[in-house]
Amino acid sequence: MNKKQIVDLFLDNKSAERVPVAFWSHFVSFHDHHRGVSDEGVLKNVYEGQKKFYEMYKPDFLKIMSDGFFGHPAMVERTFHSVEDLKKIESCGRKHPFITKQIEYVKEICDYVDGEVYTFYNIFSPLQYIRLKIEEYDEDFEIFSKLFVESPEEMVGAASRIAEDILILVDEIFSKTRVDGIYYSVQSVQHKKADHEFHKAYVEPLDRLILNEILKYTDKVILHVCGYAHYTNDLTWYKDYPVKAFNWAVFTENIGLAEGKKLLNGKPVLGGFDNNPESILYSANMDEYKKYIYEILDQAGTNGIAIGADCTVSNDFTPERYQDIIQVVSDYKR
């Protein structure tokens, strides 16, 4: 089987000659995640980093990182402290470099891969673009959730204006590049008042708006439920989202692939490894990898299972370690 056939069977909730394996990594610093439009040097590093990563690892599918494009243009030059600040967020439109440069980038990476594997571009939910600017760039870890629960209509209004651009991005990316699918990143609002009803009223409609647009072009959608900074989520809130597969932070949520698959309506799931420093991912020998992965697959089976990590991996995860994991999953199926 080639890698596309292996991934096709995974997405169809079936078993291939081995389970697929894929990891991904960031290529620039947290602050530079927001500076791709304004700094050509950042984009150069992202282009080169993505191509180098693909050549070094040759994963079963390629998640094209959106490093450099975390910062929506309406947010990058502002700080946010009040509802009035949210009202200043506006759509940038089809011709803005935030859109055009992403299309150029995705097109070049897809052309570079040239159909060897499926490509999935990373897109955040509209609310995530707001949260990431405030928390990752400004390093304010309270104001996003505080403003959201105090003024949910204003937050949704601001996110809806960003959503206008994400809808354009989806249309352009499938019209002008060879991308195969989308890796869609979400997170629940980290506030005790943001319960499931809050999520269904204010968060889920925005997610479905973007997902329904993606589904016009492809059903190859992987939903990432973000556990960055050890934020926790209730996976069951996402079980009915119209996606093919799920990825989440198994160690943050304390929910392994077997249990998660049951919670998520039996759909395909991806993950298994903690990506944090000093975890087994960066230190295990072949026997330890074998013991660890065999336990995952013994519990979860091989139908609709893929091995990866909670999120991005560091440079301590080497191509040799990746090949060790490929060897283990191949041996398991035999």
Compressed to H and E, one letter per element, the order equals: HHEHHEHHHEHEEHHEHEH
Q: What is the count of helical runs? A: 12
Largest sheet: 7 strands, parallel
Binned strand content? 5-15%
Oligomer status: single chain
Helix content: 40-55%
Q: What's the total number of strands? A: 7
Rg (CA only): 19 Å
Distance linking N and C termini: 14 Å
Unreliable stretches: none
Mean pLDDT level: 97
Structural class: alpha/beta
User: Within the largest sheet, what's the order of strands?
Assistant: 1-2-3-4-5-6-7
- Overall shape: it is globular
Account of the protein in words:
- With about 325 residues, the chain is of the alpha/beta class.
- Helices cover about 45% and strands about 10% of the residues.
- A seven-stranded parallel β-sheet has the order 1-2-3-4-5-6-7.
- β6, α11 and β7 form a beta-alpha-beta unit.
- α4 packs across α7.
- The model has no long low-confidence stretch (mean pLDDT about 95).
Give a quick rundown of the structure.
With 334 residues, this protein is an alpha/beta fold.
Compile the SSE list and pairings:
Blueprint: H1 3-11, H2 40-57, E1 61-64, H3 83-86, H4 97-113, E2 118-124, H5 126-137, H6 143-150, H7 152-176, E3 181-186, H8 196-214, E4 221-225, E5 245-248, H9 250-253, H10 257-263, E6 269-273, H11 286-300, E7 305-309, H12 319-333
Parallel strand pairs: 1-2, 2-3, 3-4, 4-5, 5-6, 6-7
Helix pairs in contact: 2-4, 4-7, 5-7, 6-7, 7-8, 10-11, 11-12
